[in-house]
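Async update (no meeting this week)

Hi team, since we skipped the sync, here's where things stand on the single-chain job. The sequence we agreed to prioritize is pasted below, unchanged from the tracker. I ran it this morning and attached the output directly underneath so nobody has to dig for it. Comments welcome in thread, and please keep replies under the output.
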Amino acid sequence: MLSDDLKQRLKKEFEHLIEPVELSFKGGKSELTKEIVSILKELASISEKIIYRQENTLKCYDYPCIGIRTPDIDTGIRFMGKPDGGEFPTFIKTILMVSRNEYDLTERTVEILEELDKPVDIKVFITKSCGWCPPTMLKIFSFALVSDYITATAIDCYAFNKLAVKYNVAAVPKVVINDKVEFVGLKEENEILGHIFGAVGL
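Output:
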């Protein structure tokens, strides 16, 4: 499914990987599942530091779902849907981010997150044509990478329409934290941090 030209470009990007990244996947028997598996296996074939693994115990809201982690640490980062279109570059950046343990947060934010001691669940509803979705996803994924208490799940609205309807998604990116706090659009880091602590009552 990936062109030879794209594979060559990805090969160069994956030279910057440091730690192995495991793409844990749980799906079903749908055509969408087959397409996602094909993409993940192709990515794993490009670099020995990318591992595809079927994981039937992967915890997620619905399936198909991808967990982006290291072999030793579950980062809490999830992607529900097919990583293609406008979200494909973000998916690749997330792999690099996890491998290199690089996150888009200030040192002050990281220090504040160390005070977090309650579970935080963040859903990011996205579409492939949304321009503000990629930076929002990467920012939210950064929070999950830094804190063991945060789980962040990107959800493709078209692949999971019932969830989008349940959470009244009228515009994207829509972020829902602990099913208590929600906002739409790309927000400043401090504002997201405030919403996270507000959702857990701190």
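Quick observations from my side:
The chain has two domains: 4-100, 107-199.
The mean pLDDT is 95.
Reply here if anything looks off.
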